[in-house]
Amino acid sequence: MKTYKIACIPGDGIGKEVVPAGQTVLEALAATQNEFAFEFTSFDWGGDYFRQHGVMMPENGLDALRNQDAILFGSAGDPHIPDHITLWGLRLKICQGFDQYANVRPTRILPGIDAPLKRCKPQDLDWVIVRENSEGEYAGVGGRAHQGHPIEVATDLSVMTRAGVERIMRYAFKLAQSRPRKLLTVVTKSNAQRHAMVMWDEIALQISKEFPDVTWDKELVDACTARMVNRPASLDTLVATNLHADILSDLAAALAGSLGIAPTGNIDPERRYPSMFEPIHGSAFDIMGKGLANPVGTFWSCVMLLEHLGENAAAAALMAAIEQVTANPTLHTRDLGGSATTADVTQAVCAQIAQPQAQRKAA
Ligand code: ATP
User: What's the pTM?
Assistant: First the structure.
C-alpha cells in the first residue's frame, strides 16, 4: 500500500477550518480502499507564527516540505499584518521556492448552485484558467527611492522571460489538448503592452505549432471579461499572465456561484518539488471561528491533489461526493444562501464517500 506524505498548512482565518475539513475527507477516502493511505504533517505557519517569530514561516521551511508528495494550503492573510508580508512571506515563498509555475484553476457551476448568469446553462461554463505563476507582473522586481519626499518613486517591473512564457504556453496547450473540446484562448494585452505581451503572443504562435489539433484564439484581457459574462460557452481552457489570470479567476469564481467553491493548484509540472493545492478564497476573517466557512473549495482542491498524485479513481469519487452534496440545498453554507455549517458539509461529503459505489450512483 502506498503512503502519500501530505503537508497541511492551514495558515490564517478560515484556512484553519477548511484545511482540517479537507484532511477529514481525504482520510474518509483512504478508509474506503486498501491501495493508498495518507501521512499528514501540519505546519502552524502564518499570522500567529509571525507574531511569535517575526516571520511567516521559518527560514529553512522549504526543506521541511521538500520531501512531501503534495501540500494542502488554506490561506494567508491577517488584518494586523500588511498583505504584502503575509503573501510574500508564505504562499509566494513556497510557490516561487518550488517553482510551481503553473497555477491551474478549474471553474464549473456545480449541481444545485445558483450562479449569477441567468442566461448561462451550467454546461455552458466549464473552464480551466492557467495562470503564469512565477514571473510577469508579480516577479517582485522593483523598488522605491526618495521615500517620504515629494519626488518619491516606486516601480513594480513586469518581467517575462522566453523560457517562462514557453513553459506556461506548452503547459496550457497540453492541458487544452487533454480536454474534450481541445480549445485554448490566449489572453493578452499586446495592444497596449507592446514589448513583453508582443513576445507572449509570438511565443503562443510558436508553441501552437506543436499542437496542431488544438484550436486556439487570442483575446485582450479586457474583452475577455465581457466574453466570460456574455459568451461563456465560447471558452474552455485559458492561459494568462500572473496579474491577468489573478483577476479573471476571481471573476470566474464569482460567475460559478461563490468564492467558497473555487479550487486551485500551484503545480510544478516537472515534479521536481511538491505541488500545492488550495481554495482560491482568502482568510475571510469576518466569518472565521463561526463554522460558516464553505469547505467545498478545499475539497475540490483535494480532488486536484489526488489527480496530481495519479489517484484518478479516488479523485472522481471525491468529486462525485462533492456534487451530490452541493445538489442538496439543505447542505449549502451561508455564502450559497443556506444555513449548513462547515462540519455539516464535511460530514455529508464523508457520508457520500462511505457509501458503496452503486448506492452513490443511484443517489
Ligand atoms: P484575504 O485578505 O486573505 O484575501 P479577504 O477576507 O479579503 O481575505 P476572502 O477571504 O477571499 O477575502 O473573502 C471575501 C469574502 O468572501 C469574505 O469576507 C467571506 O464573507 C466570503 N468568503 C470567502 N471564502 C469563503 C468561504 N470559504 N465560505 C464562505 N464565505 C467565504
Answer: 0.94
Q: Are 45 and 319 in contact (CB under 8 A)?
A: no
Distances (CA, A) of 302 to 189, 236, 239: 33, 22, 22
Q: Is 107 in the pocket of ligand 1 (CB under 6 A)?
A: no
Residue nearest to atom 31 of ligand 1 (CA): 260
Q: Around Cβ 14, how many Cβ atoms within 10 Å? A: 32
Residue 221 · residue 245 · CB < 8 Å: no
The rounded Cα 130 to chain-centroid distance in angstroms is 10
Ligand 1 centroid to Cα of residue 119, in Å, is 26
Q: What is the full DSSP assignment across 198-236?
A: HHHHHHHHHHHTT-TT-EEEEEEHHHHHHHHHH-GGG-S
Mean pLDDT of the chain: 95
Residue type, 117: L
User: What domains can be seen in the chain, in order of their start residue?
Assistant: 1-102+261-363 (3.40.718.10), 116-255 (3.40.718.10)
> Which residues fall within 8 angstroms of residue 184, CB to CB, at 6 or more apart?
172, 173, 176, 214, 215, 216, 217, 236, 237, 238, 239
Span 97-154, pLDDT tens digits: 999 999 999 999 999 999 999 888 888 999 999 999 999 999 989 999 999 999 999 9
Q: How far is CA 322 from CA 132, 187, 318, in A?
A: 28, 31, 6
The C-alpha cell of 43 is what?
A: 505546519
Cα separations (Å) of 256 from 110, 213, 232, 245, 341? 8, 29, 11, 16, 20
